[in-house]
Write a structure and sequence with these properties.
By secondary structure, the protein is an alpha/beta fold. It folds into two domains: 82 residues, 434 Repressor (Amino-terminal Domain), CATH 1.10.260.40; 156 residues, Endonuclease Chain A (Endonuclease, Chain A), CATH 3.30.870. The protein has twelve helices and six strands. A six-stranded mixed β-sheet has the order 3-2-1-4-5-6, sandwiched between helices. Strand 5 and strand 6 form a beta hairpin. The longest helix is centred in the middle third of the chain and has 18 residues.
Amino acid sequence: MNKNDLNPHASPQAAYGARLRSAREVRGWTQEDLAARMDYSSVHVSAVENARKPPTLRFSRSIDRALGLVGTADAFERQYREIKHGSLLEGFPEYVSFEGRAVEIRLYEVGVIPGLLQTPEYAATLEADAVRREAITPEQAKERVELVSRRQDTLARTPSPLIHAVLDESCVRRPMGDHTVMDAQFDRLLKFAEMPNTVLQVAPFAMGARRPFSLPVTVLTMTDRSIMSYAESAQRGHLERDNASVVPILTAYHQLQAEALSQTASVAMIEQLRKGTL
């Protein structure tokens, strides 16, 4: 596979390789230059860039040291760990890589609090049930909880992304763990609503047929104002980049927001649920 053949959308590994090549070339480095800084061979660097060889944790950390990205939101180690999560739905690691660079995030969730708003305890309780059902291993559960934390860290950047979150009423009605877990989760939602770059709304059951979505959906706006949507089935996730397909989803999302409770009413509902008065 040569440079012209590499499609960064072909796989997470291809996206990793394309990003590595771009980071190298913007610095004016050859593969030999980068290899020398990483203590790897240029053949190895070429193989990763062209997705012939998968990246490793050691390789990713070496890139970050060479490029000065250690501990940053753009670290290659972070991208490697996203690729590594084999327990995640196909397509989700690719979505996460875009989520971390989006300037606007619009999400709608059903049944559970979305990952970007979860407390560690809520996330751990959710994954513990998946382990109980033998859907994933304890190791995979730990990785998933860690990923939730890393996704939230990525969004704590400057400038902050604008985040619109519409939660189906089932998200806040469904108990997860004991009351201490839910109390902390409700508190997290209320603090999220107070942030200057967020909008939190609840879509009440009373919306009935006026609800435009029956499944969770996310719409991302990137720095160049391009938009993409992400949705999941039971088997895989799908990232849609075609504007003709995404614009109707964005339109439906605006309709959802118009029909949902206002942030003030949504916060009042969450406060009543936390107090047990609703």
